[in-house]
Fold each of these.
Amino acid sequence: MSTIAKDIFAAVTDDNRARYEAHRTILSFAEYLDEVEAHPERHLRNAAGYLVDVVDHFGSATIDLPTGSRTRYKLFDAEEHDGVGRVVGQERVQERLVRMLKNFVRSGKIDRLLLLHGPNGSAKTSLVQALSKAAETYSETEAGALYRFNWVFPTASVTKGSMGFGGKSSSSADSYAYLEGANVEARLPCELKDHPLLLLDKQSRRTFFDKLIAAERWPRDKSLPDLLLHGDLSTKNRNIFDALLTHYHGDLSEVFRHIQVERFYLSRRYRRGVVGVEPQMSVDAYSRQVTADRSLASLPVSLQHLSLFMTGGPLNDANRGILEFSDLLKRPVEAWKYLLVATEQAQASLDNVSLFVDSVMVATSNELHLSAFKEHPDWASFKGRMELITAPYLLRVSEELAIYEDQVPAALAGTHIAPHALEVAARFAVLTRLEPPLPARYDEKVRVLVESLTPEEKLELYDTGKVPERLPQKQRRELREIAELLYDEYKDSDLYEGRFGASVREVRGLLFNAAQDKRFDHLSAVAVLDELRELVKERSTFDYLRRETVRGYRDASTFVRTIETWFVGVLDEEVRQAMGLVEEGSHAELFNRYLVHISAWTKSEKLPDPITGKMADPDEQLMRQVEDALLADGEKAEDFRRDIISQIGAYRLENPDVDVDYELLFGPYLRRLKEDFYASRQEIVEKLERNFLRLLDDDVAHIDAKELEQTRTFHQNLLAAGYNDSSARQAIAFLLQKRRQRADDDS
């Protein structure tokens, strides 16, 4: 063996041995009881309690959204797995799911099937799998230790007696748990992973728990799982236990010697406590006789008369963990009627045995199948044993965009993605999902305001809290205050907001198609817009394209046009910033100086001259400069100044403990100042853009040296903003084209 191989071999074996010892992988039953006494919180829990501890292990955070504060459970961020499997958004679904798990813990039993329902591609399966993956990771930790047990029967060289190996036991060991393989005649695992405490009878368990409570090792006000209070061993284990107890004439200590407690780890891959079930026709469990497929000689004589049946299948394999039924309602109801009993009583009847399980059962379904199931005669019976959790499409652009930023670059490895290409798609997806507000639900004073809200304005309100600039200050504030009410408007309706619209899968496919547009060597926002124009023609393919338009909502064709307008505006602003013609924030600084001077003007006060330091009248030239850009036709400067000061005073009266929000009060004015600045320099802007295209073509001979330096700076700023030469060229050409079209339309 080479030196490197030898070092690796030594390191691996040493690490594994240390891990094995640290994790206390094998215990005798007596050692396990010591472990329970030392750490009862790890062992006195059922599957729901375990999953709640998984949630707590990864932690949570409160996030403030424009639509209200929400709890974000960090396990759904998949940070332990480098973000692979992350669930973006869906905080309300997370909260509902965790709340149900905690309800199971409080009641002490798991008596509901959790049915996540929503449109196709709304992250239902991803939510369940994120929880499952977190549980797998947690089971590797010290706090996440899980134990099952095996039956160990030693060879004749270890024990003698009527067990079939000789006479009365002569071994001095307290347990056969640590016997070497050569000294083990037979080892029967518990395929159901029965909780080791079930080896104690109910009264002994109760006494044990009472002593833990008396010793303040377990809180008096904390429920114990019904499984541990009233549960029992599986059929096979009960038969073995009783046969051994009879053989040993009631000596439990001899029975417990045969117990080997073993730590196990949750694993979806190996179907240990985490199992996913695809739609199928059969019952999700089976039983078969143990002695039918192995030599009777490998079992003790005292057990060979028993009919031992082992169980298997998803219900069995998922015991002590989580069982996911993917697209449950695609199966005929008759194929899963057994879940009526399995969810309420944690029991399933098989051919030869009854299977008692301790699992959190979670199912997923799309709305089409759920609607059909609600018409089934047995719906009422199932409804009482199910907890419906709605999982809608995302309604915030930033969250939708995060999904594409996670998935699309990896799928288009090596393909440059131009800025805003993914956001164009994300905005379209969210716009198709928004529902028209219901004005009748609101106070009369905001009813007209709610009715006037456009889809684009509602999108911005949900995503960033931005309110329309067209509204007066008072109405803008009122709209912000009812943002959460708007978001909750449809939550109790079968036609909830986010039920209809473009799915992530459809939009992702559209982005892949746009990336193959032969006009571009990158994924271009222009190509995405073109793909959207083609998509909205497919009314026969997509249900959401056939919905009735209401006040501009559900109008996909118009959405494409408004998104293009938005994209042109964003691109125009981005280009201006990259040119560096004015520093960011300078318009706000100018407006603040204006406020200082008009405040002094209204009070007939003087201000210190910034150059001489002497007191002087407010700067009339400065005030006129701002007012030339802001005053409406026929509006008097004096009236405008007094109105501005009155708005500031009213805001301070209504909000005495906060600083003045100038963006809320005067956002439109700030933007008009910026637009006025660039309008006065439009020729310079367009000349720089044309010089930029010449620079990319290496045609700079006739460009002035100063202008060339500006153009090179412009180029570098665009690259820093995420463009490459190809996508920057295309963006500038597109912008020039749209400006010409706008000029032609205006003329």
Amino acid sequence: MVNDLKIYNALDFGVKADTCCEKELENFLSSIPQDEEQKTIVFENGTYLIDATKLRKQKLYITNTAGDKEYFKDETPHLSRAPFYFNGLKNVTVDGNGAKFIIHGKSTNAVIDGCENITIQNLTITADNPEMHELKVINKGLFYVDYEIDEQTKYVNEKGKLYFVGHDYKRKFKDQSKTAWWIAHFPKDEPHFCQRTYHPLRDAFKVSEMGKRRIRVYTFTANKFQVGDKYYLYDVRRQYAGIFVPNSKNVTLHNVKQHFNYSLAFVAQNTENITLTNLDFSPEKDRVMCSVADFIQICMCRGKVTVKDSYFSGAGDDCMNVHGFHFKIVDKKDDKITVRFMHPQSHGYNAFEIGDEIEFIHPETLLPKGSACVVGSTMISEYDIELTLDKNDSAVIGEYIENVTACPQVEFVNNEIDRIITRGLLLTTRGKTNIENNHFYSTTMSGILLSDDANNWYESGMCLDMTIKNNKFDYCGENGILIKPENKRYAGAVHKNITIVGNTFKKCERACFDMKDSDNIVIKNNSIGDCPEKLITKNITSFIKDF
């Protein structure tokens, strides 16, 4: 039987506003009992300071973040740190009462690991002078471009060499300039439009300081730049994250603000039932970007994912990506198969539970060949999982499986999305999905993409029941809605039962609807504005369209 509510006040444990409180915060959270008691963790309203270099380090295998080979020689792969570490807690509400936590240095913002029935609410997490810098073009000549550096950025000039500096980093202005092609570019006349481009200093043969916060970059490609354009420079490796939720159940975030994170703003893996309401993931002050990668990444999750009444602005990848994985079968013996994580940015955890249903997927058609039930699951390496099945007659070494139990339902309702450098929503889940009453203000790629692939990112799987209703798409840099499973050979519909009704498309740079290899598509009562053409289709077996 659950006992009466127990209150835990952070102040009683020495967690005080206007002080550096990383050790006190760690001790406080580790003291919360892992029992069934109803608990509320309470912070006083105020500003709390966190020194990231003093946080406890731990290995975190966070999906879609830095792979093993992306770390520098002096770094330990997947070693991270976080000021908030909620471990194994049950029946707990964390109430920030409007508190603001400012992190000095690089870290993951929060970890919710192995928790059940946990709510985080009424708090803000941000960063002081993070490693993200804005350069604005203020002048140019035949062979030079002049930039102004934003007020938040700190830098030093050491004997003519310029470095960005922060609490725990020092980086030359030209670091990664030859390899980071996915830097964010905001054109002068379109402040809500962002696109991936090469590093603005890539072709520089000299960089000099002109005065306070102004530099001159000498280059033979000055004609490619326009006065008023803005560029955002950041470490593209996705080394940390915002809020990371592995192996949990019934997780709620309400009225949570994040103004900066080093990769994915919220990422959940192997978690059941996620509710995100009244979030504000947007930049502070005069900046227009706050997330190096996706705002929401949902991977190998179960139950239902709900995102409502929230604001998302300034992401270096999708607003939300919901997917599973295609695991490659690398061994088969008796009633066992060994399956492997195939993408270097996603591995290190067991994504299967006893009782899960799997399907055997042909990599070229992306269609199932048979099914089985998991009766045992063991992690045998960082990348490999041994599964014991009730039957494995459909298993073929070199082909793939999908865990069809780990395909959540999705509700994405009443949200505003702005300045998204790729897609608004990337969806590959079998669960019933409702996308309704959202405002997609600007996506550089498609507003919504239904994918599925077993050759590149290996993100599964097919969409079987989706409604896209009463949304506004003010600008899409590619298609409004793109249905494009990445099958190599057509042998039947991959996605099915998609209804697109009552949406408004103001402008799409490509066809408003582009779809292939799908079945039972309904398009009705949509308002289509300035698009090159309405519809492109291929292998749509059942189609109702009345735009």
